[in-house]
Structures are given as C-alpha cells and as structure tokens.
Write a structure and sequence with these properties.
Order of helices and strands of chain B: HHHHHHHHHHHH
Oligomer: heterodimer
Number of helices of chain A: 10
Shape of chain A: globular
Order of helices and strands of chain A: HEEEHEEHEHHHEHEHEEHH
Low-confidence stretches of chain A: none
Distance between the termini of chain B: 65 Å
Radius of gyration of chain B: 34 Å
Number of strands of chain A: 10
Radius of gyration of chain A: 19 Å
Distance between the termini of chain A: 56 Å
Low-confidence stretches of chain B: none
Number of domains of chain B: 2
Largest interface: A-B, 39 and 28 residues
Helix content of chain A: 25-40%
Shape of chain B: elongated
Helix content of chain B: over 70%
Strand content of chain B: under 5%
Strand order of the largest sheet of chain A: 6-7-8-3-9-10
Mean pLDDT of chain B: 83
Structural class of chain A: alpha/beta
C-alpha cells in the first residue's frame, strides 16, 4: 500500500546525525543508569546489545524524551532535547515501543493505533489511512477489530510496533520488539526492519544476537552505562576467537568484547 | 507550451496514439495537464468506443458496490476512546465522591447541630479524580503517552475538565440542598484544583493532591470540627477573596506548562 510523500519529507536534512549524544548521563531512580555515553546514529538499523542492567531501557527512555537526562548533551534530528526545549516538533517524528508495553484492554487494535496517531498530532484526514497501512505492515489485518485483551503476547507486541510506525517516524526506538514472536513472525519482522531502516534511524534493543547480526547495519554494545563497541556486525564477529564463550561467531565476539571491557574497567 | 496541439493530433492521442511517437505523446500529456480548453477538445474528439467502455465499467462497478458489504460508519476516534478508558478508570472514584457528598448532605439535614459538612468537604471532592487523571498506576500506557507531542498540561486539563464536569453539578445540587451560596461551594473547589495542577508538575499530581487535601484538612476542617466555630475562610464574606485566589492560582497553573513536558526519573 503506497502513501503520498510530501515535499517536506524529500527535502535534504541539515543535521549530521539523527541521534547524537555526548557525555549523556541519565538516572533511573537514584541509580545513574547511563554514565557518560557518546553515541552517534544515522540512517539505518542499529542493534543495541548489552547485559541486563547496562542501561539499555533507560537510554531508550531518554532518547524517546520520556525522561530528562541528568547531564550531557542530547540532540535528536538536529534539535537539542536536554534543556527546556520545545519537544513537540521532535516528538512528532519519533516512534517508541517500550519494554513494558502498557495497553488499554478494552480498545480494539485499530482504536488503539488511532488514539496514538491522534496523540502524535498527525493530520486528522491522514489518520485512518496511516493506521490501516501500519496494521497491514505488521501483519495484524485479520485482528484489526479485535479487543486487545483477546490478543496473544506476540500479537500485542506487533500492535505495539504498529503504533510506533504509524506516523512514519524519522527516529524509531524499539525496546525488545521480538519478545513473544514465533520464528516465522521474527522473519517477517526482520523484513520490516530492513524496510524501515532504508530511510529512517531505527534503534532496536534486543537480547537475540542473531537478530542483530542478520537484520542490523550497525551494532552498538553498551555495558554499565558506557559505550563498549560500535560498528558493523562483521567487526563484532571479528572481535571473537575460538576460545570465547558462545555458540556462534557473533556470540563469541559479544562475550570477548564484554570480557575485555570488564578487565579494563577492573584495572 | 504555448501552441495547442491541433485536432488531428488530439484525435490520434485519444485513439491510443497510432502514428505519434513517445515524445509527441508526452508533450501532448504535459500540455493537457495545464490547458482546460484542450481537455474539452479531447473529450469531444474521442471515438465512440471509449464512452461505451466507460459506461460498461460504470455498470459493473455499480453492480459490485450493490452486491458487496455496506461501508461501516466510522466514529470519531478520539471522543470514543476518551469515553472508554478514562471513564472506566475514573468511575469508582467519582462514585465514592458522590456517595460521600450525599452522606454529608443527609447528615447535615438530619442533625442541624453539626458543622456544615458539605461546605467542608466540597474542595476535596475533585481531588481524587485529578490524582487518577495523571497517575502512573492507573494509566497503563503512561510510558507511551509520555513520549507523544500531545502529552502535557493540555491533556491534564482536558481530563480535569472531565472530572469537574461531573463534580461541579453534584456540588451545586448539594449546595442548593443545604442553602449555602453556590459561589462559596465552588470557588474553594476550583482554587484547590488549580493548586493541585500548579504544584503537580513539580512534585507529582498524586502527591500534590494529597498535600492540598492535608493542608485543607488541617487548616480548615480540623479547627472547625474541634472548636465548632466555622473557620473564617468559609464565611460568606470571604467570597471575593476566594475569587481572587482562584484567578491567581489558575494563572499560576497556566504558567506551569513546562513542568509537564517530561517525567522526572523518580515519578
């Protein structure tokens, strides 16, 4: 299903990076979850890897402008979002799927995506078409008018992805989007990711290293709130040797990087 | 193009372009896009088979439309969904408020020796509803909504207006039932609501509601009950002071829009 592209969308961008963080510090409660992170993300699919407690969810929340950073500079699409800035323009071009995806059980999928599209201040005439397109892209056309409390976990996750992509965001943040998806749906999701990464900046946080290696153009590895490695999946694979823990080259590279980072931090 | 194509060229174009090369067809098309006169001449010089074909297509389409399912009436998405979720979350609190006010009214009518309970409880009536309107615990999709451009003071005010729309008529009825002036009932109520909205951006709407209720209880309700003398702020002569306070608090709350733009990491 096609959609019309406005002239503003095809205009060239004047910002070098879609997401640019310098020395970012974000608190989660009292704990400083993101501690001096430098990150620059352009167009493409970026996979965010890291052990539990590394600050991935907090980083996603800060990039989605849900939480204000405690320190450092954060620029989204050329606009600074850390101070007392007007966030509405940036938020119209954002899409976010949180890890704990809360939904209203009595809504149908279509009503939920329409409500979120309205909250994202899309033009009212464009909302029904955009909602249908988003639902078709995630493969929920048959369940579009079912109540959300009747959906399985994987379908709920896909409904969450649909609301994140309904406004065709320039920066798309997906926190664990493949939780609950069966292998066939994961393949469909990888296709969707490649399609989305063609002209927007997508950041996918996931624990599945294989998904990252196959579908992502760039891998970002963070640990304890700091950046450990950023590069293509091949550079991740090149870091690992036969002696490292893991069943696949990517997992070996991942554990090698973490081992080296922890050794340096301990020193 | 300044020169219009002659009728012969137009007739050949309408016929499918025999004898016209591609460049000629393109130039005719570009000219037709802007020139209404030539379009009218094209309509006049089409061979008879074309209108017959269009008529056949129209008949088939009408038959298909009549045989298929009728279009579903689309309700306006935002009004429907607001009614659904927020109404259900708010209903218990509103029922509790109305029941409490009803009991206070009955008690006041039946035992004239008591201090005016309805007047004392009136400012606290909308506070539970406002606390529920902007609370992480009652809104399951809080994280999603916090990252949208429409989130902020406007959304809280819309929900507060929904709460007041129920509470204010009940208070007016209760005031008519006990014979106190409507201004004396409603102005402290509006002033307390404005105070909660003004403070809620800094300390959390739930904490602000609890704080305002505690201040009212300790400063006005407790002395009135203990000394059985109506507190000076509830005398009929204090209505102009309340009006001034309400206007000042509403103006102050309107300037607090910045606080609602983002969540702090603690709430």
């Amino acid at each position: 299903m096609m959609r019309t592209v406005s002239a503003a969308e095809t205009a060239p961008t004047t910002h070098p990076w879609a997401v640019h963080a310098e020395g970012l510090r974000v608190r989660a409660g009292r704990h400083l979850a993101v501690d001096g992170l430098d990150l620059a993300l352009g167009t493409g699919v970026h996979g965010l890897l890291g052990p539990n407690g590394a600050g991935k969810t907090t980083l996603m929340r800060a990039l989605a402008t849900v939480v204000k950073p405690a320190d450092g500079r954060l620029t989204l699409l050329g606009q600074p979002v850390d101070g007392r800035a007007d966030l509405r323009r940036v938020r119209r071009a954002l899409g976010y799927l949180p890890q704990q995806f809360g939904f209203y059980p009595r809504f149908t999928v279509r009503e939920f995506v329409e409500y979120l599209a309205w909250l994202k201040e899309m033009p009212k005439t464009a909302i029904p078409g955009a909602v249908q397109r988003a639902i078709d892209r995630v493969g929920l056309t048959a369940k579009a008018d079912a109540r959300m409390k009747t959906l399985s976990g994987g379908m709920l996750r896909r409904a969450g992805i649909a609301q994140a992509i309904v406004n065709d965001p320039a920066v798309l943040l997906l926190d664990e989007p493949t939780v609950g998806l069966d292998p066939e749906q994961r393949l469909d999701f990888r296709t969707l990711l490649r399609e989305l990464g063609a002209d927007s900046c997508v950041l996918v946080s996931t624990h599945l290293v294989e998904d990252v290696v196959v579908a992502c153009t760039d891998v970002v590895l963070i640990s304890e709130g700091r950046l450990v490695h950023q590069g293509t999946p091949d550079t991740l694979i090149a870091q690992g040797g036969q002696s490292d823990a893991g069943d696949s080259p990517a997992e070996r590279g991942y554990s090698a990087l973490l081992r080296r980072h922890r050794a340096e931090a301990g020193r | 193009m300044n020169n219009h194509p002659n009728l012969g060229v137009l007739a050949r174009y309408a016929d499918g372009g025999p004898g016209l090369d591609e460049a000629a067809v393109w130039s005719v098309e570009v000219h037709l896009e802007t020139c209404a006169d030539c379009r009218a001449r094209l309509a006049g010089s089409t061979p008879d088979s074309i209108p017959a074909l269009l008529d056949r297509v129209a008949v088939e389409l009408d038959r298909g439309i009549a045989a298929g399912p009728s279009p579903v009436r689309v309700r306006r998405p935002w009004s429907a969904v607001h009614r659904r979720w927020f109404a259900w979350a708010l209903l218990p609190w509103l029922v509790m408020t109305v029941a409490t006010l009803g009991c206070a009214l009955l008690l006041q009518r039946m035992t004239p020796g008591l201090p005016p309970l309805v007047l004392l409880l009136a400012p606290l009536a909308p506070l539970p509803g406002v606390a529920v309107a902007w609370s992480r615990r009652t809104d399951p999709a809080w994280e999603l909504i916090a990252g949208t451009p429409a989130a902020g003071l406007t959304m809280l005010l819309r929900r507060t207006a929904a709460v007041l729309a129920v509470v204010v008529p009940v208070l007016a009825l209760a005031g008519a039932g006990t014979g106190t002036s409507a201004a004396l009932m409603l102005l402290p109520c509006l002033a307390c609501t404005a105070a909660v909205v003004a403070l809620g951006g800094r300390i959390g709407v739930r904490n602000a509601a609890i704080g305002v209720a505690a201040v009212w209880a300790s400063a006005v309700v407790l002395p009135t009950v203990v000394t059985t003398n109506l507190s000076v702020v509830l005398l009929p002569g204090s209505v102009p002071a309340w009006a001034l306070a309400t206007v000042a608090l509403v103006a102050f709350a309107a300037t607090r829009a910045d606080d609602y733009r983002r969540l702090s990491s603690r709430r």
